[in-house]
Amino acid sequence: MSSQKTKLHARNKNRERYDLNALIDCSPKLAKHIQPNKMGKDSIDFSNPLAVKLLNQALLKHYYGIKNWDIPERNLCPPIPGRADYIHYMADLLSENNLGQIPKGHKITCLDIGVGANCIYPIIGVVEYGWKFIGSDIHPESLAIAQHIVKANSVLKNKIDCRLQENKQHIFQGIIGNADKIDLTICNPPFHNSAESAQKANRRKVENLSRKKTKKPQLNFAGRHHELICEGGEYQFIQNMIWESKKYAKSCFWFSTLVSKQSNLKGIHKSLEKLEANQVKTIPMGTGNKMSRIVAWTFLSKEEQKEWSETRWGNK
User: What is the pTM of this model?
Assistant: First the structure.
């Protein structure tokens, strides 16, 4: 049996099976949450939100050099391998407009819509590629926690700008300023349209992980209401994003979002066609047993794309 999680991106640091001894060295409390999986091999208890948080602390320290990372138990604690895949696939997309070379360093500015307290996407993007980030969120407390993480780790200082979205009806407006040029936007949209839907899905997930029935499980990856739920769920959030993105057609090279539900793709592509996006790409992604995809779009013409990469990235 392969020792690699082969669905992960080739540059993903977590393609190999976790070195549990090395991770326990980084986060000794993790040792209490190791248990045999159904194959009889030592594994993390992924049904326990504390275990997931301790695992994230260990992964960030061991693979990314982030020594100071902590979030309240109520905030979303995302699985790092999947987040890293998104960043790597977007780096590949940028390389297509840069003579096959991934543009690195402070010339690249990425906007993370809904950065959350965990700040995971910017952390990975800064460490892996040296990019600068804008992280937006509607929750001041989440932004304050993210800012604390940035200040507590020297590698992140002056690389991540946290901005509050004061109007929940908007995504880009109030975040992208007149002088801003954004090379890339990323987003992991709220998935559920109600608390009941979120609880039902989580019950299924936890029962699969723990192999036990439970009436009201803890969210194994935690998450505040606004991080998981919005009116209309994932589909409506992405539709709102697409229609608003047209207003910022010349301020951003590539817009992108994760799309968890395959059934949402048809309506998403239809809206992008209606708004005359110049290019649309659907990039498949797989982590573990879950398949997902990224949809990316740009309104820039081929000539505008060439000028953008030449003037901002030095691609000549």
Answer: 0.87
